[in-house]
Amino acid sequence: MTTIAEFMANDHQACDVKFADAEMAALSDDWSKAETSFNTFRDSMARHFRMEEDVLFPTLKSAGGPSGPVHIMLMEHAQIKELLKQMGAAVERKDAQEYGGLAETLLMVMQQHNHKEENILYPITDQILAAQREALLGQMQAV
Questions:
Q1: How many CA atoms lie within 13 A of 2 on its CB side?
Q2: Which CATH superfamily is domain 4-142 in?
Q3: Would the pTM of this model clear 0.85, i.e. be above it?
Q4: Whole-number Å distance between alpha carbons of 125 and 56
Q5: Are 135 and 55 in contact (CB under 8 A)?
């Protein structure tokens, strides 16, 4: 049986692959592929955030879970969304140097963010929401 931690970590990994595809295309000046790959990556990140912000985090908080870590994750989501907006603009301008710098920053932010989620928040979620796990997984998959 899949845990919430496993499900969400797998989604992190899927987003990471899409991130790498977009970065490789942009840094190779293959802007047609970069635009497509970046849009796919951005859409995957948006879906991941919706799974957390619309399903997982509210359910955790309503079950008495820790609001502090959730608040920090939401602040980091806002930071990541802003970086994605700037990266999208760099793709539109076909600016590989700017895209590369933003991608480097985003990579560091995502690695730290994912580490906190995978090693702190998701395990807590699996404990607190164990009885609701299957329903939550279904809701998140439906996002």
A1: 14
A2: nmb1532 protein domain like (1.20.120.520)
A3: yes
A4: 8
A5: no
Task: Read off the pLDDT of residues 8-53 as tens digits, 9 standing for 90 and up.
Answer: 999 999 999 999 999 999 999 999 999 999 999 999 999 999 999 9
Instruction: Give the separation between CA 111 and CA 91, rounded to whole angstroms.
Output: 22
Q: Helix, strand, coil proportions of the chain in percent (round to 5)?
A: 90, 0, 10
Instruction: For Cα atoms 97, 100, 113, give the angle at the middle one, nearest 5 degrees.
Output: 155
Q: Where are the domains of the chain?
A: 4-142
Taking the C-alpha atoms of residue 41 and residue 84, their distance in angstroms, rounded to an integer, is 9
Please answer whether residues 19 and 92 qualify as being in contact, where contact means their C-beta atoms are separated by less than 8 angstroms. Answer: no
Banded pLDDT at 1 (limits 50, 70, 90): confident
pLDDT in tens, 122-140: 999 999 999 999 999 999 9
Structural tokens at position 70: 């959730």
Check residue 3 and give left, alpha or beta (phi > 0: left; psi -120 to 50: alpha): beta
